[in-house]
Amino acid sequence: MRSTDVMLLLPPFQALVDEHWRDVARLARALAGPVDGDDVAQRAWEKAFAAYPNLTSAQNLRGWLLTITARCATDVHRARKPQTPLDDAPPIAVDGPEAADFPDPELWQAVKDLPERQRVAVTLKYVGDLDHHGVAAALDTTPAASRRLVSDALATLRTKLGVDHD
After folding, report:
1. Separation CA 140–CA 154 (nearest Å)
2. With 0-12 CB in 10 A as exposed, 13-18 as middle and 19+ as buried, what is 138?
3. Digit-coded pLDDT (tens) for 61-98
4. C-alpha 59: how far from its chain's center?
């Protein structure tokens, strides 16, 4: 048998879901917020399922899933446009997320205010628990650029929140 005849042995997709669903859901909520997080996670699983049979490597499946999740969250942010009402009727009041959804609302607001690439980088690093190589892969950049994005984001957060650098 030639080496090109060896088939890649992937675990069943359900095993992948069972092992990593919490990581995908947590990252989706952190990047897209509690309102859109579930939709982002669902879209990430759909994309992963469609791409799964064509994978050429079974290494770092968690990183692969988190990269897909980060890109789906970015798609949601890019798709948001200011919307105008269809008519002059008053807007319908909708309850937003509860304060308990964000244990530290000041921190999460500061994270939300970061530039998009910094926000995604710092979230992948600290919520997704990816190393700089994983963050770089998710953002299509280099590990050095990933380090810089995370460093700049942390510096901005420290300044905004009044945290000492020491």
Report:
1. 20
2. buried
3. 999 999 999 999 988 877 776 656 556 665 555 555 55
4. 20
